[in-house]
């Protein structure tokens, strides 16, 4: 027997040695391949990225517009691009887009701007408005803007409307379908599973948990959602009508009026777009290429017009040796983007500890004289929100002004972390408010009973044994509800104190109700309407700064992390663009939506189980 065991250990050890050697060999070969390819690309004249003279900048945006990209492993990202794998959730950094457009405005090599937006996904109206403003500013250079597309989604069209020449493919289509908030509701499903849902909340309009206790949207939620959706849609229509120079009544909001126009053009979406002044003309791809070639000339391959794409242009203008003024006065920008969770979280999610650490870093940095907290969040953990808010107070106590700039969302916990700022700027379309608290969990004693499984035992107190497999004692439920009510009282007291408002007045506009920035200004929840640049200027003015730089306050990378980030970041440009994200099918999309609804709550990790989150805020 001992001999057999020894043989087995020897065999297993040999197999492991082979596998381990193969693993090391595989990754070493990949590293050598990357290194050789990078060296060849650097020394090769053909591999160099440069801006052709009198060319067009093609703004081919692929993904969601965000103020902070979700953290990804640099090697995984490089391999994805190198082997042209589809990116699951591509993102485009808003400040990169604004920087590229502004640079192209003054770049003598750039003769025109081409908007190729078919890869652009949701952006948030505030982000689209900023890009639209940048496009209008670009026009001051008297360089033309072309928008081309086989089709246009609503967000894509918002930007395309700012073009001097807006063309659609003759086989293309577009429908401006407005804003809506439709959700899945699970009450009947949970009943069939015999799950018991325990809900604790304060706020008539705090409807985040409605899908778990109803099969439809409540009247209160419909009333609240309809109000802010209508206000948001009015802004969209006004902006697009102004950009296209048309009457706001041109928008078809009723199916009957749309059908009448659609029938007149024989059911042709493209012709409908022309007849209603949505586009300037219909052009197929070759006609677009010919028109742009006549404007900027042919490229070296003679296969198209001279151009440089968005990603390549960023590589050129974001040079590796930009001057850094370490001793200059700075306005520090701390980004708080995503759901607020407890602990340390990666970029793209707000961590109570990690975001507080960034604020603390800004406070202890002697070159940072003022701070802007850039918020884009529907909220999350009440505890984590308070951890972050306390650091906001510490910055103010240190004598540094702190100004909040609200992006697409700053609701519930997003408003909690903003309320204590010296000054709050919101975009006209910012979704904010949703001042309320809730808690929710499920128990499965009935489900298990149906299966013939039962939980029983003893404990030293009546608190012992709380578990999803046992029924909730009503008295424990009362304890939780009172704690939620206490949290809500904390929330409205915080707002009342920081905004110098009467507590009853705050309660009247709270109750979980959602507002857009324009209305929030009227209600006193924000101070001014504007964007990040406005908030930075306000912070600098409060700090008495006339000459200053801005600095994004980020986590310090280790030397190893810094090396690999830079290595793979430079290497990836030589391997072309990643394939565009494509649909996985309607059925899979529905499955993903269903999983996502539950996943939002599954990620919550507040130690007290109390959440300030605005699920209905997400369009």
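Q: What amino acid sequence fits the structure above?
A:
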């Amino acid at each position: 027997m001992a001999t057999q065991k020894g043989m087995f250990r020897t065999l297993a050890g040999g197999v492991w040695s082979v596998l381990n050697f193969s693993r090391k060999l595989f990754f070493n070969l990949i590293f050598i391949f990357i290194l050789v390819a990078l060296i060849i690309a650097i020394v090769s004249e053909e591999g160099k990225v440069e801006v052709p003279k009198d060319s067009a900048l093609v703004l081919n945006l692929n993904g969601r517009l965000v103020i902070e990209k979700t953290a990804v492993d640099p090697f995984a990202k490089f391999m994805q691009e190198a082997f042209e794998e589809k990116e699951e959730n591509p993102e485009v950094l808003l400040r990169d887009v604004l920087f590229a457009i502004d640079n192209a405005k003054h770049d003598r090599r750039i003769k025109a701007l081409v908007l190729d937006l078919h890869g652009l996904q949701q952006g948030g109206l505030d982000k689209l408005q900023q890009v639209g403003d940048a496009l209008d500013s670009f026009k001051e250079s008297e360089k033309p803007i072309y928008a081309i597309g086989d089709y246009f989604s609503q967000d894509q069209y918002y930007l395309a409307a700012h073009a001097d020449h807006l063309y659609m493919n003759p086989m293309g289509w577009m429908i401006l379908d407005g804003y809506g908030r439709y959700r899945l509701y699970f009450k009947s499903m949970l009943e069939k599973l015999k799950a018991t849902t325990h809900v604790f909340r304060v706020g008539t309009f705090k409807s985040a948990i409605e899908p778990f206790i109803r099969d439809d949207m409540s009247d209160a939620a419909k009333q609240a959602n309809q109000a802010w959706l209508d206000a948001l849609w009015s802004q969209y229509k006004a902006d697009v009508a102004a950009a296209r120079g048309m009457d706001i009544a041109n928008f078809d909001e009723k199916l009957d009026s749309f059908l009448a126009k659609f029938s007149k053009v024989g059911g042709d979406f493209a012709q409908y777009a022309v007849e209603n002044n949505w586009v300037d003309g219909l052009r197929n791809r070759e006609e677009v290429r010919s028109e742009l070639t006549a404007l900027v000339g042919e490229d070296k391959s003679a296969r198209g017009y001279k151009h440089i794409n968005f990603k390549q242009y960023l590589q050129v203008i974001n040079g590796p040796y930009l001057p850094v003024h370490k001793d200059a006065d700075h306005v520090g920008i701390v980004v708080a983007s995503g759901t607020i969770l407890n602990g340390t979280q990666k970029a793209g999610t707000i961590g109570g500890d990690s975001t507080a650490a960034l604020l603390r870093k800004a406070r202890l940095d002697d070159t940072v004289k003022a701070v802007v907290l850039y918020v884009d969040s529907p909220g999350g953990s009440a505890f984590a929100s308070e951890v972050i808010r306390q650091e906001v107070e510490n910055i103010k106590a240190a004598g540094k002004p702190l100004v909040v700039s609200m992006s697409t969302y700053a609701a519930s916990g997003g408003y909690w972390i903003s309320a204590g700022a010296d000054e709050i700027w919101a975009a006209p379309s910012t979704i904010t408010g949703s001042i309320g608290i809730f808690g929710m969990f499920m128990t499965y004693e009935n489900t298990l009973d149906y299966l013939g499984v039962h939980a029983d035992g003893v404990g030293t107190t009546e608190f012992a044994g709380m578990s999803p497999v046992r029924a909730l004692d009503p008295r424990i439920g009362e304890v939780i509800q009172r704690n939620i009510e206490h949290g809500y009282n904390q929330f409205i007291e915080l707002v009342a104190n920081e905004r110098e408002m009467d507590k009853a007045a705050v309660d009247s506009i709270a109750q979980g109700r959602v507002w857009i920035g324009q209305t929030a200004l009227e209600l006193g929840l924000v101070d001014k309407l504007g964007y990040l640049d406005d908030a930075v200027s306000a912070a600098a003015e409060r700090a008495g700064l006339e000459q200053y730089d801005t600095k994004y306050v980020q986590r310090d990378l280790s030397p190893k992390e810094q090396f690999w980030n830079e290595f793979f970041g430079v290497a990836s440009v030589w391997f072309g663009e990643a394939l565009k994200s494509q649909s996985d099918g309607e059925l899979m999309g529905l499955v993903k939506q269903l999983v996502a609804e539950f996943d939002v709550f599954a990620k919550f990790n507040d130690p007290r189980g109390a959440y300030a989150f605005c699920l209905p805020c997400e369009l």
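Q: And what stands out in the fold?
A: Confidence is low (pLDDT under 50) at residues 573-584.
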